Amino acid sequence: PVKIPEPSKLSTDFGKHISFRDAVYHSDLEEFLIADGLKGKILKYNPSGNPEVNKYFDVAFPDSVEPLKTPEGIAVDSEGNIYIADWGLHRILILNSAGSFVKQIGGIKAWNSVNNQAPNLMFPKRIAIEEDAKGILFKGKRVFREKHIRYHIFF
What we know:
By secondary structure, the protein is mainly beta. Helix content is 8%, strand content 42%. The protein has helices at residues 9-16, 108-112, and strands spanning 20-26, 31-36, 41-45, 51-56, 71-76, 82-86, 91-95, 101-106, 124-130, 136-138, 141-143, 148-153.
């Protein structure tokens, strides 16, 4: 894992902006991605910890998916997909490294429209991706099991 360089603008900003909730380094993009819960945006900082010229990570949502509301946690898997815990909309978003929407897990609309049941994902804060790096040998081929998304909820 890549650590936030100290001293740097990123380490200073993280210390003084209460809205900076979580950070992850995306090795394919060579950028730190920061979840800004107050602005509902993902910010970009370079590996030296300085803000990028275009400081916001562009996210392309289809019309049927609400934009980010309060991103609290962020993680990246080995394929470069980005996972965002969106606290205010009770969901986890999965984006590809270009910022295109891949999938939504949970969400207010999903549970309001189905029998008025409570969401199975309430206020997700932190997120981590567990992956099977070794796999198993099956019929002469290496097979990798599924990814597991771990999240924490806090009130």
